[in-house]
Specification:
With 350 residues, the chain is of the alpha+beta class. Helix content is 32%, strand content 25%.
Length: 350
């Protein structure tokens, strides 16, 4: 069964692999398994292997998760070679070192009680001679017990490197180091969580700003630039249009159309805009005129200099009008949107 979260990623309704493992262990009990509480809502599930109980799983009843501490071949699963202090193993029998390299816990291995989120692990690399004793009491060897020690967290992850110690006072130092590393890990996780939360908040705020900005932009555009069909004009019929005139600038004729004033009302405005008489160019600015004033032609389509100039922005247009004023001595300006609408509708209706 699947469900979708807010970000669209498919998620199994039964949770993570650790949660699934926890549920399966809780629902199914094997006669070859036994459970032992280690404190702090942690339970070790031991499995019978060649007449010895092995710590197979760690159950976290608080978080409802489980981890495979050791597989069915007695190979440790939460520990790697990098988690072993190999220097401390120097001088030990090679067969013990080989067991460590293989992460093999075939000999007695124990997870002790948890305290403040930390548990001691005793991993025996070589048993003493009694391990090989026959039923009749014979067969003992002169092997010495070799055990390395480490500390793990609730998920079975090492907090310090496993090492061979000669002075048990080192265990106290290792435990303190493990607790310190656990606190550091917890702090880092909280920091990462905080960064993740703030990243999500920042992303949401950015999306809100972007979408909000677009909505505001669209609102202002239609507020200040109402659609053509939603605009009504009221020309002053008591007077005629000003006479059209033709201006010659740099040898180029520009025909200007006279437009009589009136009122224009656009949807969304509470009051009609009054316009005085004004002039507007009969055509758009040609490439020929632009080149005569600006000295270059930025247009993409240059088939004819009589075509409208293109590829220019508002700043360039304002610069053109300023230079056109300087050359002609006439007060040119870029018509306002209401003037353009008024002239366009008046031109259609007469």
């Amino acid at each position: 069964m699947k469900k979708f979260n807010l970000f669209g990623k498919c998620k199994d309704i039964y949770g993570t692999e650790a949660q699934k493992l926890y549920d399966s262990i809780c629902w199914f009990e094997s006669p070859r398994e036994r459970k032992e509480g280690l404190g702090e809502d942690i339970v070790v599930v031991e499995e019978l292997y060649e007449d010895f109980w092995k710590p197979r799983y760690l159950l976290d009843n608080k978080n409802k998760t489980a981890v495979e501490f050791m597989n069915g071949e007695t190979i440790l699963q939460t520990i790697s070679e990098d988690d072993i202090d190999w220097k401390s193993l120097e001088g030990l029998p090679q067969k013990a070192i080989d067991k460590a390299k293989k992460l093999d816990a075939v000999f007695p291995t124990f997870v002790r009680n948890y305290k403040n989120g930390v548990a001691l692990v005793e991993w025996q690399l070589n048993p003493d001679g009694r391990y090989y004793m026959d039923d009749d009491g014979f067969g003992m060897t002169n092997d010495e017990e070799i055990t390395i020690y480490g500390f793990i967290d609730r998920a079975g992850k090492p907090l310090v490197k496993f090492k061979y110690i000669k002075d048990f006072g080192e265990l106290d130092e290792m435990e303190e180091e493990a607790k310190k590393n656990l606190r550091k890990t917890s702090t880092n996780m909280k920091r990462k969580l905080k960064i993740a939360v703030w990243s999500i908040v920042a992303t949401v705020l950015l999306l809100v700003c972007v979408l909000g900005g677009k909505l505001l932009k669209d609102y202002l555009y239609f507020k200040l630039n109402p659609p053509f069909e939603e605009t009504t004009i009221f020309p002053d019929d008591t007077k005629a249009n000003p006479s059209d005139t033709t201006l010659t600038i740099n040898g180029i004729n520009i025909k200007m159309i006279g437009v009589r004033g009136g009122k224009i009302n656009c949807k969304g405005l509470t009051k009609a805009i009054e316009l005085d008489d004004f002039y507007i160019g009969e055509t758009e600015v040609s490439q020929e005129l632009w080149m005569s004033i600006m000295g270059s032609n930025p247009s993409f389509n240059k088939d004819s200099v009589m075509c409208p100039v293109e590829g220019v922005d508002l700043v360039e247009c304002l610069d053109f009008v300023h230079k056109l004023d300087s050359v002609s001595g006439i007060g040119f300006y870029i018509q306002s949107h209401p003037q353009w609408l008024y002239a366009a509708i008046l031109g259609k209706t007469g």
